[in-house]
């Protein structure tokens, strides 16, 4: 219990630091969103004081002391109120993020979990059957597949399976004629559109999990407790999974925590290639259009997701290896 409370305290402290930095960094930068908007207006002629005041009021330029702004900002974060998007005015930032977040979590999150499970199991198998074709096939195949960048694999799939073959849609999360609703027809249409981006992420990430697990598994197989378990006549599957794999998975679990935290950020290039309406595509749009409120909200959400994922991994570490509790 003390171990969990320490981790919760560390999470709360880190979360406060992340929120505070997200408040300070935009204010330490030269200029403001209002200055950027006024600079665009100034290209057509001088900007009057009335126009400047209207732009500042429209964009919600903060007023008052830094401490007052900070307290107001904490209240806004607690209410999930990040203002209005400049790009999609007058839509709220919270509404845009809420609409994009499920698409990224379902696509990138599920594929990341599937790739981790299959990659870890294949890595265990490759290390246990080292020197056989069960080692060579996943190792060489995973190395070859992971050598290609995300966007290159996405472009290949779009060209050959989308344009040339015509088997799968090349963009979007659902058909233009479909109405977003919780129905079997819409879910099937969304899954059909997610096949190519999901395959891209799976192909390019599977090799890393295989090679990482295989490497640590081989080192663990040389430990004395594994030799002792084999000498006691335990079944090979029991030795491989309960003795070797349980300890070898810890470094892979750390990488999985980082990958899971990055899920909310989305696979920006993959979502860009497929015009998939996830957080990655929304972040790209915000950066290219200098949409500061939207960028600030997305950066904060991505940071929080990474912290929560690391917290979960720390708890799992304590369960898998009780020594870490000390």
TrEMBL record:
Pfam families in the cross-refs: BPD_transp_1
Membrane topology annotation: Multi-pass membrane protein
Location within or outside the cell: Cell membrane; Membrane
GO cellular component, one term: plasma membrane
Keyword hit for Transmembrane helix: yes
Alphabetical GO biological process terms: transmembrane transport
TM ranges: 100-128, 149-170, 190-211, 256-277, 297-320
PROSITE patterns: ABC_TM1
Source organism, top-level taxon: Bacteria
Protein known as: Peptide/nickel transport system permease protein
Taxonomic source organism: Cryobacterium psychrotolerans
């Amino acid at each position: 219990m003390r171990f969990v409370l320490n981790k919760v305290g560390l999470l709360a402290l880190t979360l406060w630091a992340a929120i505070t930095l997200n408040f300070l960094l935009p204010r330490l930068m030269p200029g403001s969103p209002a200055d950027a908007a006024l600079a665009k207006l100034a290209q057509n002629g001088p900007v009057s004081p009335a126009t400047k005041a209207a732009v500042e009021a429209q964009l919600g330029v903060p007023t008052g002391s830094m401490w007052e702004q900070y307290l107001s900002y904490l209240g806004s974060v607690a209410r999930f109120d990040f203002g209005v998007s400049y790009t999609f005015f007058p839509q709220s930032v919270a509404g845009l993020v809420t609409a994009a977040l499920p698409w990224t979590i379902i696509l990138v999150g599920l594929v990341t979990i599937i790739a981790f499970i299959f990659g870890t199991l294949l890595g265990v198998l490759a290390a246990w059957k080292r020197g056989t074709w069960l080692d060579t096939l996943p190792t060489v195949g995973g190395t070859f597949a992971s050598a290609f960048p995300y966007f290159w694999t996405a472009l290949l799939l779009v060209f050959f399976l989308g344009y040339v073959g015509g088997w799968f849609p090349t963009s979007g999360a659902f058909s233009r004629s479909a109405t977003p609703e919780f129905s079997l027809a819409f879910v099937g249409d969304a899954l059909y559109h997610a096949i190519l981006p999901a395959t891209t992420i799976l192909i390019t990430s599977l090799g890393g999990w295989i090679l990482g697990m295989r490497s640590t598994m081989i080192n663990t197989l040389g430990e004395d407790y594994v030799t002792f378990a084999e000498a006691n006549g335990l079944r090979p599957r029991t030795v491989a999974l309960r003795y070797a794999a349980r300890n070898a998975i810890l470094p892979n679990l750390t990488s999985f925590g980082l990958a899971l935290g990055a899920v909310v950020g989305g696979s920006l290039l993959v979502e860009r290639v497929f015009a998939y309406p996830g957080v990655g595509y929304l972040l790209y749009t915000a950066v290219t259009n200098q949409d500061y409120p939207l960028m600030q909200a997305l950066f904060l959400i991505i940071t929080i997701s990474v912290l929560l994922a690391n917290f979960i991994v720390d708890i799992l570490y304590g369960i898998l290896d009780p020594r870490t509790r000390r």
